[in-house]
Amino acid sequence: MTNLANGSAELGAAAGITADIRDRADPRLVLADRVEQLYSQLPLGMVATLAIGVIAAVELREGRFIELVLFWGTLLVVVVALHAVLYQGYRREPHKIDQAAQWLRWLGIGAFAAGATWGFAAAVFFPSHADERQVFLAFLLSGVISGGIPMYAASWPVFAAYAAAIALPFTYVLATFGNRLFAEIALLIPLFYGATVAIAYRLNGVFLEGYRLRRAYGRLTEDYRVLNQRLERQLVELEEARRQVEASGRKLALFAERAPIAVLELDGSGTVQEINHAAEILFGYASSELIGGPVTRLVLPKFHAEFESQWQRLVATREPIAGLKVKNPRRDGLTIVCDWTVTPLVNPEGTLISVIAQGRDITAQLEAERLKKEFTSTLSHELRTPLTSIIGSLQLINAGVLGEVPKDVTELTDVAERNGQRLLDLINDILDIEKIESGKLTLAPEVIRVDELVREAVVLNKGFGDRFKVRFEPRGALSEARVNADRKRLLQVMTNLLSNAAKFSPEGDVVEISAESRDGSLRIGVHDRGPGIPEGFRSRMFGRFNQADSTTSRQKGGTGLGLAICKRLIEMMQGHIGFEDRPGGGTTFWFELPCLNDR
Amino acid sequence: MPERPLVRICYVEDDEDIQRIVRMSLERIGKMTVEIVTDPMRAIEAMGAFKPDLVMLDWMMPGMDGPTLYRKMKELPATQALPVVFITAKAAQRDLDELKALGAAGAISKPFSPKDLPEQLRAIWKKLP
């Protein structure tokens, strides 16, 4: 029962497929196939026509009708010759498919002409000949009609035209002969005609179906071939893509495996999936000990609750975390501090695949930072106290507090005082840089009038200028704009720029200071006539411990930190600092600060 | 500004070298009378005997630091009115703010210039009520 049902279902499916396939046949190609078949049978038809014609002419040649038989024979030959011309024309046609309908029409006309020639024979020779010749003619004509069926079956209208051209005159002659038997035969001929046309119509249908199927299967085969080629190409591409994915996967695995930082892959619940070699070394666990267990094994128990809430947030938001400092217990009981970057891996559908945690041991780095801080504090307090005594003692001697001192002695105490001062400057600069870079320097901004600031800086640095025999003078009208800045630190910047200008100016020269405000920005410039900045030094101008010529610091003092501090201070006050060659020689150092709008 | 000139200075400092320099600076350049106290625990007692116009306190000293000593002075009638100037190697804004909060008359940072020290003290003296 089931099998039967299945069988009929399969048959139904097959029929469906056949109908579907038939629709794929191109009707133009099917028509061309039928025309080709009709023309291919044409030579056979021509030969048969000539042979039958010759036999008929010989049989019908009687003295009285010899001219008529000759005329009919000639007509037959002409019709066959025209068919030969038609056949040749078709064979030479370069566009057989496009012109198929036209060639079918020509063939229809040719078939009608051939039929009409046989019809002529019936109309002319039947009445004129004796009984036995009439039987011969009747037999001949029915044979010629029957022979037309296979000849023209590929197109039933062609056969219908051909057969009608024979049957109509023959029927007429029989009906009008005056013999009762012949009149009865005349009634049968249309029946015979109808039957043959019906057979031709059926055959036409069979041919049509056959050609359609052939074309459809041809089309199907072609589609299949194209599909196969495409599949083959896609297979090659897929294989190539697979190789690339495999290669990048291997590369990634290598990165993680050989990386000096610990890499852990965790699932959404915080279970360790994979760890690299660096992680094994860092925490002292074998990978088999950690994989499959909770990552909290690497978190101190007292931080478990905090870790859990942070983990839940990470899984919920899927936002990566960087710079997470965590105290991690090692297998041997020691605790290290690691800097973690935690990145959730999410696929395009938004599903969390895993979480990648990368950790770097910063225990030693933190210890180094602590030592540095301790050292800085030592520098600050333990070095300043003895320096106070050294510089203080020398200043008292040099100030003449102890009365007259021999000139040789003051020369040396001068040197000692100057170098003590230099050491102090260096310590102060180092402390400043350290404070700025560790973010511990806080500014105390206040509203400052720029012209007052410049005049104050000139007064403060007069003594230093005198030492180098250089005068500081404001250039033009100083801007009265106001800035919001730290007065002490701004004066420190000014002092740095003025002392640099003094150090590098020729004796007896003037260092000019300008202050201009434009478009909400204040620009202070310090202009000297020194030797200028050497080309190779320009890019390092604001770096640390940089001096163009190291002998300068020995001769004129300076720590090489001044400009580095200036740059950082000005930038902390939202400004810029820079320098440029001064027209006519020398250098201009400038800095810009945003100024306050209200007047 | 007090009517009398600044003459008598009491300086509490544990470093003997700095003591010597300050004494020389204030006596020779400033023409002042100086009493140096090395042990901060005995400072209050010394002030009572010396009766200074102004007290200079070192910030960091063994035993008792400057701010602690200052708070102690504020508790005693004999010393609570004395103007105090701190000498400190600390220079951070936070520390200066702390000094002001304590009610100090002024602060001079280490290293100071002994040449200018008397002038600096007189400037602070002039600003006193």
Question: Could you explain how this protein is built, in words?
Answer:
The complex is a heterodimer of chains A (599) and B (129). Chain A contains 19 helices and twelve strands. Chain A has a five-stranded antiparallel beta sheet with strand order 2-1-5-4-3. Chain A has a five-stranded mixed beta sheet with strand order 7-9-10-12-11. A two-stranded antiparallel ribbon of chain A has the order 6-8. Helices cover 63% and strands 14% of the residues of chain A. Chain A has helices at 2-23, 27-40, 42-60, 66-92, 100-128, 131-152, 156-176, 180-258, 277-283, 287-290, 304-317, 363-382, 384-398, 407-437, 450-460, 462-467, 487-504, 550-556, 562-572; strands at 262-266, 272-275, 321-329, 335-346, 352-361, 445-449, 471-474, 482-486, 510-518, 521-527, 576-581, 587-594. The longest helix of chain A is centred in the middle third of the chain and has 79 residues, at 180-258. The relative contact order of chain A is 0.04. In chain A, helix 2 (27-40) packs across helix 8 (180-258). The two termini of chain A are 106 Å apart. Chain A is elongated. Chain A is an alpha+beta fold and 599 residues long. Chain B is of the alpha/beta class and 129 residues long. Chain B has a five-stranded parallel beta sheet, with helices on both faces. In chain B, helix 4 (93-102) links the parallel strand 4 and strand 5 (106-109). At the A-B interface, helix 13 of A face helix 1 of B.
